[in-house]
Amino acid sequence: MSDRIEKTIELKAPIARVWRALTDHREFGGWFRVKLESPFVVGQVVRGRITHPGYEHITWQATVTTMEPERLFAFTWHPYAIDPKVDYAPEPPTLVEFQLAPIAGGTRLTVTESGFDKIPAGRRAEAFRMNDRGWTEQMKNVARHVAA
Predict the structure, then answer these.
(1) Which tens digit of pLDDT belongs to each residue from 51-83?
(2) Which CATH number characterizes residue 90's domain?
(3) Taking a C-beta distance cutoff of 8 angstroms, is the pair 64, 41 a contact?
């Protein structure tokens, strides 16, 4: 198992449109299926309720680390932290990076989540498997969102 997940998609949308879909907390929430309480601000924690059916009891939380307009958006979080009875705070988070690059006719979006090697062994494989599957779906979601 690798310590990272990487997914790339070519979107038929300009970089400015993709950037807005990633960094406007309302737009992000729409395609990511989470109702965020506040905007993304570097150095701050953002929280919200997951809206995906079956996961509405989960609070989504991330700490924004980087916002380089139309190039890089990144945050840290605790991957596959779905048990509300577990305090994941002592665990090291993974780093999620959204990298944008111009291509003919649109934008190449690459999402990388790294740091799985630091997740406790007892939940590392499941977190990796579920997030790998999740990022595949989220790439489809963002593509639909920016095409609308």
Answers:
(1) 999 989 999 999 999 999 999 999 999 999 998
(2) 3.30.530.20
(3) yes
